[in-house]
Design goal:
The complex is a heterodimer of chains A (about 110) and B (about 120). With about 110 residues, chain A is an all-beta fold. Chain A contains no helices and 12 strands. Chain A is about 0% helix and about 55% strand. Helix content of chain B is about 0%, strand content about 55%. In chain B, strands 2, 5, 6, 10, 11 and 12 form a 6-stranded mixed sheet that branches. In chain B, strands 3-9-8-7 form a 4-stranded antiparallel sheet, with no helix packed on it. In chain B, strand 8 and strand 9 form a beta hairpin. The model of chain B has no long low-confidence stretch (mean pLDDT about 95). The chains are: A mainly beta (about 110), B mainly beta (about 120).
């Protein structure tokens, strides 16, 4: 089975801090994604990457950036955290069968 | 633009009841995929099913069944004889073919099964 590991389950940060959310997958998949989950809104795509060094904006990229230096690792960066970025962040990966495999999520609280 | 609507925010049933989760979608694509995912309290979304838009056959997997009706743009999910372990948030999602993980999700339905 695909294993997608997110570095933190819970994270508390202060407004204005730079925040890094890390995600590692162990199945050699090219495609990796960051989604954000909010009650009543479902999941929304922030950024995705189909290859190392490659990144594409999703539906809600504002306030975020990403880094993909190695195939297995995809990082989400909040340059200057704000309270409206308090949310559950989900990393996912998929292979050629287009089925998403998710990590357990990081619940980020920005105070 | 794609859109997925799960009108039921929360459903509460007693164990052994049958329950249907509704999903309605909008897309301009002629071919697309539809998905259902389950999110238990642990948080990790679990893939349940993917359907191609050209395959309207209903599917059954154990206590789970899915009813795809292209004419009404619906992809409903039924759990027969529900169990407490079915308690979770269920998401319906839509993607264009070859979008490789770029899904549009519905709002989710919280299902609680009481003993």
């Amino acid at each position: 089975d695909v294993k997608v590991t997110q570095s933190s389950r819970y994270l508390v940060k202060r407004t204005g801090e730079k925040v890094f959310l890390e995600c590692v997958q162990d199945m050699d998949h090219e495609n990796m994604f960051w989604y954000r989950q909010d009650p009543g809104l479902g999941l929304r795509l922030i950024y995705f990457s189909y290859d190392v060094k490659m990144k594409e904006k999703g539906d809600i990229p504002e306030g975020y950036s990403v880094s993909r230096e190695k195939k297995e690792r995809f990082s989400l960066i909040l340059e200057s955290a704000s309270t409206n970025q308090t949310s559950m962040y989900l990393c996912a990966t998929t292979g050629v069968d287009e089925k998403l495999f998710f990590g357990s999520g990081t619940q980020l609280s920005v105070l | 633009a794609q859109k997925v609507t799960q009108a039921q925010t929360e459903i509460s049933v007693v164990e052994k009841e049958d329950v249907t989760l509704d999903c309605v979608y909008e897309t301009r694509d002629t071919t697309y995929y539809l998905f259902w995912y389950k999110q238990p309290p642990s948080g990790e979304l679990v893939f349940l099913i993917r359907r191609n838009s050209f395959d309207e056959q209903n599917e059954i997997s154990g206590r789970y069944s899915w009813n795809f009706q292209k004419s009404t743009s619906s992809f409903n999910f039924t759990i027969t004889a529900s169990q407490v372990v079915d308690s979770a948030v269920y998401f319906c999602a839509l993607s264009a073919v070859a979008s490789y993980g770029k899904l549009t999700f519905g709002q989710g339905t919280i299902l609680t099964v009481h003993p």
